[in-house]
Amino acid sequence: MAKRLPKLLTDTAARAYILELAEALKTKYQRRNELLEMVRSRRFLENKPVIPHAFKVTPAELRATDVFDFCRRAAAILGGSYPVPMVIPLKEGPDAQVNSTKREKWLVAGEEKLDEDNLYFKLCDAIIADGKAVVTIQTQQYLWDFEREKDEGAEEYNKRVEQHRQRIFPFFAEHVPTHTYYPVKDGGKITEVLEIGKREAKAVAERYGLAFDNNTKKWTHVGARVQWEKSWPQIVDCIKYWSNYQVIFIVDDLIVMNERHQYGRPPYFEASALITSSPDPAHEALPPVFPLVNLQDLKDCMITIRLNWAIWSGFPQFMLEPASEDAVLASNFNVTDIEVKLDRAYVYMPPTGYKLTV
Q: Terminal CA-to-CA distance of the chain, rounded, Å?
């Protein structure tokens, strides 16, 4: 007796379930994303060193490149070549050996076909910088569709179908940024995945036939490609939900796709770097670059202090001193009224009764 397929979530039930699940997973993985952002801010030199408020008028500061350089070097080493697949023959004999060799060649060819948009190097970079690389691999079954021409014989049609399918590769792979990946695991296996992030509105609207209502400020499903308007939002919030049998795509609370799939599991695959026994999602897989974060912060701080000390002590420090015991500053005097002109020599123009010393 055939196994009964699970019932699909309806749009109403799916929206409520997914939005509630999304909030729970955001809370669960909040510290993980904070750690990822901490590493990225140091890598891309966005973190400012600590400077006391009174000294912030001095613009000299160091932003060291330790984290950036480590990620660059490690990812270059790891991503220098594709992994070499090795298929162990299922049994002894030359036929099994030939079969395993053929499958190894297929795997190598598949790696090259899937590596679009520098996919493999992005995965290597994510392992070093994020501690985890995530990829989704899916089929593009529509590429296999091939219409039969009128009055075309079966033999001729089958030959054209075979030639057509030899020219295409019906799989695609895409790197999933680690901070957008929210898995749900049961017994160590991934049973559900939420991909939560932002996407370019124009591309999403064209793919799913969406239009933006300027009155309600919401997206609507029109089912056809419409003329894009510049007044529409440029970025949309998206949630892609995968279970073992269903995929749902939500754009700003609007379900634009709700389908059954045949993968038997969410089509996401992950590789981790420094795996720990910690149950905390922030620490279960640490990036190799993580220990450098604190060292870079200390380096930024210490060298920035020295830079500021050199500036404050290296430039002339002018002091205003009374020329006599009865010298009095005018009540409306402002320190900015002192003008120092630099030519071949210093020309001081202090207020009456005062002198400048260095």
A: 98
**Alpha carbons 354 and 216: distance in angstroms, whole number:** 69
Q: How many CA atoms lie within 13 A of 98 on its CB side?
A: 3
Cβ atoms 238, 4 nearer than 8 A: no
Instruction: Identify the sign of the CA torsion 53, 56, 60, 63.
Output: positive
- Cβ–Cβ under 8 Å, residues 258 and 243: no
Max Cα distance, the chain (Å): 117
List the structure tokens of 295. Answer: 């060292």
pTM above 0.85, yes or no: no
Q: What does R_g of the chain's alpha carbons equal in angstroms?
A: 32
Mean pLDDT over each residue of the chain, to the nearest integer: 85
Query: According to the model, what pLDDT value does residue 58 have?
Result: 60
SS3 240: strand
CA distances from 229 to 173, 206, 212 (A): 31, 12, 9
Q: What is the DSSP letter of 181?
A: E
**pLDDT tops 60 at residue 29:** yes
- Distance of CA 109 to CAs 83, 96, 161, 166, 223, Å? 12, 20, 21, 13, 37
Residue 345 pLDDT:
47
Around 211, how many Cα atoms within 13 Å sit in the side-chain half-sphere?
Answer: 10
Spatial separation of the C-alpha atoms in residues 41 and 267, rounded to whole Å = 30
How do strand 346-349 and strand 339-342 relate by DSSP bridges? Answer: antiparallel
Amino acid identity, position 259: E
Contact 133, 127 (CB under 8 A): yes
Coil/strand/helix, residue 243: coil
The whole-number pLDDT of residue 126 equals 95
Predicted pLDDT at 285: 93
The neighbouring-strand residues paired with 275 are 285
> Using CA atoms, how far apart are residues 273 and 291, in angstroms rounded to an integer?
14
